[in-house]
Amino acid sequence: MATKPGLSCVATQRKKRWRKAMSTTEALLARLNAVFDSARPAALAVSGGVDSMTLAFVSHLRLGAGVTMFHAASAAVPVSATERVRDYAARHGWDLRIIDAGEFADERYLANPSNRCFFCKSNLYGALSSLSQAQLFSGTNTDDLCDWRPGLKAADANSVRHPFVEAGMSKADVRALAAAHGLTNLAELPSAPCLSSRVETSLRIEPQTLRAIDQVETLLRGELSPETVRCRVRRAGIVVELDQPTLSCLSEDSRARLSHQICAAFGGPRPVHFQAYVRGSAFLREQSA
């Protein structure tokens, strides 16, 4: 049976787009490999998110035993992220070390100022520098440079290199790289900053609060399968942010039932509000004059 000309044209165009995407990914990987080759041995901070996990995967392909992965496990890291790191390390043969970066012993971090991330990363990179003399890598990409990220100052102070930035790779490029290596679960993994980012600026960071946040977000993912979920802790109470389609489908009965479970996670009654997701809405940055 002859193929219809229209369908043949569509198939050809799809093949061209696929080849172009693969060519772009191969070029980006070549740039990354050049970065890896210039930094043997290397040590990589792996948080469990798409950026650092993808960087860990491709750096290990290139460097093998020449790269060590470090994961800082704490109350600020979702349990699922630590499990993901352990699982990948076991399946792919990474040299993985689980460490305590020490941020919960730092009052500057616990006070939760607007530049809390600086103190978090200072503790992380300081701990890594004390454990390894290798070149430190982070999963920062070019999109991150467009945001206000105090942690990048800590990276500079500790001579941390950012391979994705050096290779000119955006978040979309990182996801494409993960997909090209068959890492579909990473390529589609939603962005998820550390749990401390859910706590409104200047409210003290407490481990039990972060564990409750993780418990609530895990509950909501299981119940609602949202595209985006954030459990924010504010002075006025708990604010659950969901992507608009998920929020629109949430009935009053469901809100009441979930509110009860959320209060239980936080150890008692408190106001619970459901809102549309707004990026960084618990974060109050100091305004310059």
UniProtKB/TrEMBL annotation:
It comes from the Bacteria. This is Pp-loop domain protein. It comes from Mesorhizobium plurifarium.
